[in-house]
Amino acid sequence: MRTSRGGWLLARLARAALAAWGIASLVFVVSRLLPGGPEQLALEEAGEKWGAAGQAAPTQQAARRSFRHRLGLDEPVFYVTRAPAPVAGWHWHGRHNQYHRWLGQLLHGSLGQSYRDGQPVGAALGRALIYTLPLTGSAAVLATGLALALALYLAGAPTGRGRALVRTLLGGLQTIPLFLLALLLLLLLANPDGVNLIPTGQAPDAATSSLGQGLSYWGPRSLLPLLSLVLALLPSLTLPLAAALHHELGAGYATTARAKGLPIRQLLRRHALPNALIPLLTTLADLLPSLVAGTVVVEVVFALPGSGRLLAQAAATHDYPVVVAGVLLTALVRLLGLLLADALYFALDPRLRPLA
Q1: Which of 292, 304, 297, 273 is nearest to 334 (CA)?
Q2: Residue pLDDT, tens place only, 194-238
Q3: Half-sphere exposure of 105 (CA within 13 A, CB side)
Q4: Cα distance from N-terminal residue to C-terminal residue, the chain
Q5: How far apart are CA 194 and CA 182, in angstroms?
Q6: Dist. CA 124–CA 306, nearest whole Å
Q7: Cα(4)–Cα(200) distance, integer angstroms
Q8: For residue 185, which of 175, 172, 174, 198 has the smallest C-alpha distance?
Q9: pLDDT single digits (tens) 165-184
Q10: How many angstroms separate the CA atoms of 232 and 290, rounded?
Q11: Domain topology for 123-202+209-352
Q12: Hey, where are the domains in the chain?
């Protein structure tokens, strides 16, 4: 007896949510235990002005204590902590700890407030995703479409100068790190002394500009980041699919179809491609997390106001709520990719569906 699709999907979603919560909780606890913290950076930037109610603190220690109290960092990190000597031992703190407060906020749909500017993390992340989601979505669609077209082209005939050139270019792209590829595109295609594809103009003020103004300004400036992501993803999608298609052409059903006079293009599209996609789904499951990691690189290199740049700045300034929210988002995307891959497995081959 096979399990229903709805029950299987709910079970996978529950496990994915549990895993994402576990990862975010681990990052939350570890980030609080790291040496240094946001109060140290605040003191370096503002001197001794971080006193209670905005008054000047007499010493850096008093300013640090005031800042930590304002952020709730003076409470215990977890429900149970181990005190150092001379009163070593485990101590139970009940609900009065940082993790319990964060978990309660998370269950109510709040990701906390940024240590850097005091703004809600969810609102800041939402504003950044307005620029990141179109970029990553477009890159995923373009990279997948180009990979399918190039793989069918490469599998059509294993020899030929054009196909050898395509394989060489894909192999070269696979060896270039994304940050280096983005820098090369920036130097080659955004050079005021040469080819400059990025339009000029002053960036709109994020606080006063509308959504349409922001997208109209950053949209054309996202072409090079989009090209960077597509070129970085293309080899890992194309080459395995081309190899799988070439393997399928040697199968018995393909030999029989060609003996009956079926054109190679129809054989590839109708028969070989559905079978070759099944091994590729493992690569496709890594597509979403690869895009999330790639956006951090391209948004920093091209100075885009997206979620990747936001998380990079948060990590540099010890902005824990933003970092934990970014880790939670990344974990959800990773688990969503695995869930999507499983769904595609079952759609392409019903024999893989789980049994009750």
Answers
A1: 292
A2: 677 766 545 555 554 555 666 666 677 788 899 999 999 999 889
A3: 16
A4: 6
A5: 17
A6: 10
A7: 55
A8: 198
A9: 999 999 999 999 999 999 99
A10: 10
A11: MetI-like fold (1.10.3720)
A12: 123-202+209-352
